[in-house]
Amino acid sequence: MHIKQITISNFRSFRQQPEIQPFAPTTNVVVGRNGSGKSNLFDAVQFVLLSPRFATLRSEERQALLHEGSGSAAVNAFVEIVFDNSDNRFSLEHSDEVVLRRTVGSKKDEFFLQRKRATKQEVQSLLEGAGFSKSNPYFMVQQGKIQTLCLMSDAQRLELLQQVAGTTLYEDKKGESLLKMQENEQSVEKINSILADIDQRLNELKGEKEELTVYQSCDRTRKALEYTLYDKELRKARHMLDLLEHDRMEHMQTTANLHETLKETHERIQNAEAELQVKTQALRRNRRHLQDFEADKLKAVTLKTKLDLKCQELQEQLAAGKETLQRTEHELEALEVQIQSAQGELQGKEQALKEQEAVLQQLLQEKDQANRKADGLYAKQGRGKQYSTKAERDQSLRKQIQELDAMKEEKEEFLRQQQDGLGNLRRHISTAEESIASTQAEVKSKQESLQSIRKTLEEKQRNLHSLMDSRKHTWRKAEELQERLKENRDHMQKCISDVRKSMPRATAMGLKALQRIVQEERLVVGEQYFGMVMENMTLKDPKYQTCVEVAAQNALFHVIVDTDATAARLMEHLERKKLGRVTFMPLNRLRGGHGTRYPQSNDVTPLLDMCVEFDPRVARAMEHVFDKKLLAKSAEVASEWSSKVHMDCITLDGDLCSRKGALTGGYLDHAKSRLRAYAAQRKAEEDYRNMDQEYSKVDVDAKKTEQDVTNASQEVSRLENKLSQLSRMVQTLEAKLISEQSQFLQHKKQALQVESKILPPIEREIAAFSGDIGRLQEEIGTELTTSLSEDDRAQLAELNHAMKELQAQINKQSEQVEEIRVDRQRLESLLEDNLLKRRHELNQVFRDDAGEMMAASAESLLEQKRSELEDSRQSLADTVKDLNSVDEKVEEARNAGEELKEQLLSAKQELDKLKSQDIRNSKALDEANEKSEKLMSKRSMHIAKRENYMRKVQELGSLPPPTELVQYKNQSIGELEKALERVNKKLKKYSHVNKKAFDQYVNFNDQRESLLKRKEELDRGAEKVRELVESLDRKKDEAINRTFRGVSKHFTEVFKELVPLGAGKLIMRTALDEAAEGSESDGDNSDSDGDSPATSKKGSDTPDVSLYRGIGINVRFSKVGENFIMSQLSGGQKALVALALIFAIQRCDPAPFYIFDELDQALDSTYRQAVANLIARQANNPDTPTQFITSTFRPELVAISKNCYGISHQNKVSSIHPMQKNDALRFIANLMNEEEAVGEVTALKTSRRDSRKRKASSEAPPEENEEVRETTIAQTSISVQE
Questions:
Q1: Do 648 and 628 meet the contact criterion of CB atoms below 8 Å apart?
Q2: Closest among 373, 1091, 504 to 797, alpha carbons compared
Q3: What's 1118's DSSP letter?
């Protein structure tokens, strides 16, 4: 058997590895760089073969096995191995190949054998049967396993040997056997204890059997007495029961009469309570109406009082208004005269001021000219002294002329600007005059519109108040109708509930749901859906109600439809939504009763023709319900004709004689009548519809009135808004008029100021500049002199004199101008601050509080007040009329309330009487019930006695023979009781007798025999267990010794093959060796002898295994020389010895294949070649060929391999591919070259580091030097391993 193929998916570093090329049955080598995934490949094999590492996995361990490379996360992983089973090592019939797969996920761990699901136990059994033993896992050697063997102590190697020998299985079986032996011992102890108790109890039972015989004789007598006594008591109880049953039937009749009386009283109480409720609701409505009327009365009285006060106030205002308006008009006329006089005087002052200011300006201009001429002469005189030549003077004069020209031009430009501004002001004044006139006209027009809108608003407000009164009355009527509609609706719902209570619950649910389903399905009522039977019929006379209801019974609730298809649709809805159950009557499937022949007699008549009216469309349904049903005069007639014609006969009282012979009759509670409840429902529905129609009409009227009120209110709001807007517009226009007038006056003042104060000085300056320029031009070219000429001096003197005179005139003229200005300011202040303000205040008298213009004159104002007074008087009259009407309604409501109170009091008194009667009836019924309970209690007591004595008779069991019973038959109950008492006293002497002594004696004896047999079985089992334990100990010792001899032999052979010139052997160390080593000073002699002291002392083939303490190893690597133990060997020698031990173990317990992971890592080339040759020989052995799968970094194993495989790792994904042997050797050579290069660099670094450390250690203390040497040695060993 060997591995043929391996398939890996999502395991560790492998993503989707297809089937690996079949492995060779001999040697296979896997090469690849470190970290490429070689160990993951071998872990995959161990994963499938359930090695201890992968036998039991937790959830996080399973998750760690999933591939974590690039791409989507793996959900599960599997490894599949195909084994060649040509040698049938796997115990599977007709299977040359065995496919074993293991799939693992975060939440699953599954096994598949031959691609079929298998359990873990099945797979383990299959592997153990094929030779994959848990005790010898050395068919797979992982990295580090050889190093572990190298570092094992002697005791650990002994444990390894025991594991290989399979002692674990022996120990497990021994533990189970010892546990079983302990359980047997406990069972034997328990059985001995029980046997002792049983023997003691058997001795006691022997004495109890004699007393039991006497007891049984007395017991038979007691049974005979008890039976006779119980039989007499039983007969007596039955007789009393018959008497009580007769009394109970009479009492039941009396109770039934009381129930009937109580029911009638309850009905009367219900009627009285209903009437009381109606009266109470009427009284409540009357009180609410009375409250509304009183509220209306209060509003009317309040309004009347307000209108009285308003009329009185208007009369006073009208009287006072005439005088006030006349006085105001006179004052306005006088004020206008004063204003015109002041304005005329102001105009005169302004004209005089203008003339005097013109004179003043002329004088100032003349003085200015004279002053400038004098200044020119003085300047001319100064220039004669200032300039030395004529040309220099002329040049300076020309420069002054240029400057004066520039200044003159500036003044002229400024003058033009002022004149333009004056023109603009005059244009603004003209525009302001026109705007003022237009605004005044617009104000007058808006005031007229304001008066018109106010009149219209008053009319609309009166109309609104009228509509609101109408709406209030309509609302009250609608509220009253709504309350009555609610009462009718509650009554209708109660009637509907009564009808539903009279039918089964499922039927009630179904009929309720049908109303909605018919609407959803859009069925035509009257054509496809006709409703219940009782909805489609009408009684010809109410007296037929009972007989019709008895005849139809639950068929009254059956639903009539046109076809069975319609019924199926409706039933499907009911069934799907679980809405109840209904019986449908499809007209197309019903058979009519036209063929029925009814008897012709005066005693009976067909019930359908006599009692019921219906629509011809549902005739089939009615015939189906009432077919073969007759109405009889009496129960006797009904019984006679029922048997004669084989039809159901019903009387008017509801007694039914069935055609099958059954008679049904008795009391019927008419209050629970279905037809009566349905008739009440129909009447309630009709009342509700009528009331709803009336309420709808009133509601429409109320909505119409509400709409009219809304429209009127909107119209009033619109007019009020318009009035408010016009008022604001008038105020805005008046404010605008005042602003325009103010601007007009301001512009007028500005123009006057420009004309009088700004323009004249500028004109004077321009004239002065012109004079100065002329004089300077005249001076150019004249002779330069230092003094003035005679003419100039004379002119200068005239000018000084003239300036003095002009200054005096200017002062005088300025005083006159100032006086005129003061008078003008006084007049302006009088107009603006007094007269005009007073006129504005008087004009405000013609406005109301809102600032709106009330009248344009005194007459219109008075006329307005008179009109308002007339309106108030009319409103007052209407209010008085309404108040009288409300008083009448209040009085009517109070009278109605008093009448309702009297009726309510009478109804309460009647109700109290009925309740008292009901209490008396209830008390009588309670007494009857108490009596009934007493009768029932006595009956129950005698029934209990009867049952008790019957039970006692049954409990007596087997009775004595009749001969013993006859002697007690004629005795009375007292005599029997005395005789029974005497027997019981006698039996008390034997009360301690064990009544089951015979049975217990037999039972205990049987138990004793069974326990003795069980004890013998346990003793035999314990003996077999002891023999098994001894056999297991012996087999375990034999297995350990056999395994040691086999492994020791194979170790010697394998070591010889690996080291032809050397030799090696295994030595078993015992407790005797340890004692000998303790007594000798030289401890090395113990390794020189290959025989175990334990073996020599015992002198047998199976030494005492309990003395074993460990396994030592002695080897030598040359023909001659001393032997070495493991601790004396180098690293490579230890690895070789460990490999020899592994091969020895494998030869001792061969496996079908072997997997080695870098087993030659620590070997030099000579030993690697020897190991490779050993593997090649074992793989190609013709007797026992073995498959090897190894990984390596060296060429020796590659050279002897049959198939080579390479493992690459890219993007976190490993992949396996076959390789040629030459390619594999080249790959190994490249790896070795890279290692040599790295080793040289590492050695160079190490040497430099060592030199520095040696230098440091030479300077350091001795203790530190020792630490440095140890560190250097450790680093050197690490570098060599790298």
A1: yes
A2: 373
A3: S
Give 599 or 1033, the one with higher predicted confidence. Answer: 599
Q: Provide the 10 A C-beta neighbour count for residue 898.
A: 11
Distance CA 557, CA 536 (A): 11
How much is the average pLDDT of 266-293?
Answer: 77
Residue 758 per-residue DSSP state: I
Mean pLDDT check: name the lowest of 861-875, 944-958, 1122-1136, 1169-1183. 861-875
pLDDT band at 1260 (very low <50, low <70, confident <90, very high): very low
CB 631 within 8 A of CB 606: yes
- Contact status, residue 79 vs residue 8, Cβ threshold 8 Å: yes
441: CB partners within 8 A, 6+ apart: none
Task: Give burial (CB, 10 Å; 0-12/13-18/19+) of 684.
Answer: buried
Closest Cα partner for 586 from 552, 613, 610, 558? 558
The H or E element containing residue 105 is strand 97-105
Supply angle C-alpha 837, 840, 841, rounded to 5: 90
Bridge partners for 1110 per DSSP = 1069
Tokens (6 digits) for 102: 């293991």
- Residue 641, judged by CB atoms within 10 A of its CB (0-12, 13-18, 19+), counts as buried
Contact predicate 57/1232, CB 8 Å? no
pTM of the model: 0.39
How many CB atoms neighbour CB 1005 within 10 A? 13
Query: In one letter, which amino acid is 1155?
Result: I
- Token pair belonging to 1032: 């297991």
Two structure tokens written together for 621: 């349904």
Burial class (CB in 10 A: 0-12, 13-18, 19+), 297: middle
Q: What is the DSSP letter of 14?
A: B
Distance CA 1282, CA 1274 (A): 12
Residue position matching structure tokens 């430099």: 1248
Q: Long-range contacts for 645-649 (Cβ within 8 Å, ≥24 apart)? A: 645/598, 645/599, 647/598, 648/551, 649/604
3-state secondary structure of 526: coil
User: Do residues 495 and 684 lie in contact, with contact meaning Cβ atoms separated by under 8 Å?
Assistant: yes
The model's pLDDT over 1009-1023, given as tens digits with 9 standing for 90+, comes to: 787 887 788 777 777
Burial 55-80 (b: 16+ CB within 10 A, else e): eeeeeeebeebbbebeeeebebbbbb
* 1050 neighbors 1152 (Cβ within 8 angstroms): no
Rg of the Cα trace of the chain?
Answer: 71
Burial class of residue 535 (count of CB atoms within 10 Å of its CB; 0-12, 13-18, 19+): middle
CA distance 721 to 860: 24
Q: Kindly list the distances between the CA atom of residue 10 and the CA atoms of 35, 77, 304, 1120, 1214, in Å, as whole numbers in the listed order.
A: 17, 5, 103, 56, 10
DSSP 3-state of 29: strand
Q: Rounded CA gap, 1086 and 898, in Å? A: 138
pLDDT at 89 (0 to 100): 80
User: Minimal CA–CA distance to 1117: which of 1158, 1154, 1170, 1044?
Assistant: 1170
Tokens of 1258: 């030479």
Contact present, 417 and 778 (Cβ < 8 Å): no
Give the Cα separation of 926 and 1117 in Å (integer): 123
Reported residue count of the chain is 1282
**DSSP track, 1141-1194:** HHHHHHHHS--SEEEEESTTTT--HHHHHHHHHHHHHHHT-SSS--EEEEE-SS
pLDDT tens per residue, range 363-412: 887 887 788 777 777 777 777 677 777 787 778 878 888 888 888 888 88
Give the Cβ contact number of residue 533 at 10 Å.
25
Q: Chain centroid to CA 152: how far?
A: 65
- Give CA angle at 435 (856, 848), nearest 5°: 25
